[in-house]
Amino acid sequence: MNIQAIKSLFLNNKETALYGRYITNKDIEPLLNNLPETASVKVIGRSVQDRPIYGVKTGHGKKRVLLWSQMHGNESTTTKALFDLLNTLLKDESDLNHLLKACTLYIIPILNPDGAKAYTRINANEVDLNRDAQNLTQPESQVLRVIFNDFKPHFCYNLHGQRTIFSAGKVNKSATVSFLSPAQDKNCTITPNRKVSMEVIAVMNAMLQQEIPDQVGVYDDAFNINCVGDTFQSENVPTILFEAGHFHEDYQREKTRELIYMSYLTSLDYIAKNSVDGSAYEPYLNIPENEKLFLDIIIRNATVKGEVVDVGIQFEERLIGENLKFIPKIVKIEQLEGIFGHKEIEAHGNEVFNAQGNALEMDSENVLVRIDNEKILLNTK
């Protein structure tokens, strides 16, 4: 698909009711209720705290694609993009009817509604659902497994969000979108099954390079059978991990949302039009592996307690009521050579103090700092 055409589709179909990082059942339920009859919406299970888990099925093609988001409750960007996708595909005048003729999609928009409500990675029993694929101790894990068994997908999209710390390789480039074709054995063998998911990722990467050059990464494929992706891949279902990451100053992940949407459409169009056999997998191997080389803010050449150092600040995401706040917290006071800041402030050797005029301390929260008598705000826009 032409990239400009996809961007136009996004602008015309973006779900305006969804914005920001805090997305819960309360936000998506009105949208699910308003979906046209061409999408079947069902409650497919309930969470630990008895919240409904929804499934949306649409399309009537032979190629079955299972997509689930917010397995980690605080990773919502892919959920927003799922509703943008549904708006696009379910329009009466859609030019993408070939996707639903070739594919059947089964979407679980929020697998972990308790975690979404509390804005936590884990579920209400403090279990990481992405480490529960084998034991299936949690109701949410059991729901996904039942749908997987019943739907018998040909492709799985495991949809996540990643922190701002990741770079696309050992460079000063944020990993704005990352992927993984999970391993299916301890040797991380590039199996025929993995090649299929690698081929689809390679297609998405080629598209994204036009929009965010050098800002796509892949994760280490170390095998962990307790992870859902590794489990499904080991059962010979091509599985793709999507990770929505950081774009410059986009802490609400609205630009990343667009990029994930573009990835959805590009990959589904490719699957719909092609018999994906893994023969075109090799470009995947050239995507750089993610490194942890970023902090949200670095104050360079700051004098702290008589020593010239760099000060590294990371935002702590904190839910206050129903508002998500980004709290600047000092995590490093040292030389940070080889580490990059999404925002960098040059102190030129001046002493840097907190708002009260005291020396900076590790693990302290600082909304602003003072450099050479100037107040500098550290929070996001």
Task: Report what the structure shows.
- By secondary structure, the protein is of the alpha/beta class.
- It has two domains: 3-292, Aminopeptidase (3-Layer(aba) Sandwich); 294-377, Urease, subunit C, domain 1.
- 28% of the residues lie in helices and 29% in strands.
- It is built from nine helices and 17 strands.
- The strands form four sheets. Strands 1-2-4-3-5-9-7-8 form an eight-stranded mixed beta sheet, sandwiched between helices. Strands 13-12-11-14 form a four-stranded mixed beta sheet, with no helix packed on it.
- β11 (294-304) and β12 form a beta hairpin.
- α1 (3-13) packs across α3.
- The longest helix has 20 residues, at 192-211.
- GO terms for molecular function: metallocarboxypeptidase activity; zinc ion binding.
- The active site is at residue 243.
Question: In summary, what is this structure?
Answer:
The chain contains 9 helices and 17 strands.
List keywords for this structure.
single chain; about 375 residues; alpha/beta; Aminopeptidase; Urease, subunit C, domain 1; 2 domains; 8-stranded mixed beta sheet; 4-stranded mixed beta sheet; 17 strands
CATH fold field value of the largest domain: Aminopeptidase
Biggest beta sheet summary: 8 strands, mixed
Can you give the mean pLDDT? 97
What sort of overall outline do the alpha carbons produce when their principal axes are compared?
A: globular
Question: What structural category do the secondary elements indicate?
Answer: alpha/beta
- Poorly predicted residue ranges: none
Spatial order of the strands forming the largest sheet: 1-2-4-3-5-9-7-8
Specify the helix fraction band: 25-40%
CATH superfamily of the largest domain: Zn peptidases
CATH class categorisation of the largest domain: Alpha Beta
Secondary-structure element order, N to C: HHEEEHHEHHEEEHEHEHEEEEEEEE
Work out the count of structural domains. 2
